[in-house]
Amino acid sequence: xxxxxLELEKDKVRLIIQGEGHTFMNALVEELLSDxxxxxxxxxxxxxxxxPELLVTTKNKKHxxxxxxxxxxxxTGHCNELVKGLKKQ
Length: 89
Description:
The chain is of the alpha+beta class. The chain has a single domain, classed as Gyrase A, domain 2 (2-Layer Sandwich). The chain has two helices and four strands. The chain has a four-stranded antiparallel β-sheet with strand order 1-2-4-3, with helices on one face. Helix 1 (22-33) packs across helix 2. The longest helix has 25 residues, at 64-88. The relative contact order is 0.19. The model has no long low-confidence stretch (mean pLDDT 95).
């Protein structure tokens, strides 16, 4: 996954995440919004085949990149739980 940083501030980041679509971006935004330190998390796919742009702003001047990494790790954990559940079947 290739990530391009468009804007990075103490409490705000705008990223382009190449090759991803609505499926991953919806999961990521939902997971980010479950974090009480995240103020805004949204994405935009301007055209059908364009890469999504993610915007994340945080509360209390928290740096957004570690929060994004934690959200991705939680998504991975959910997927691992699902795989384990399927293996039991």
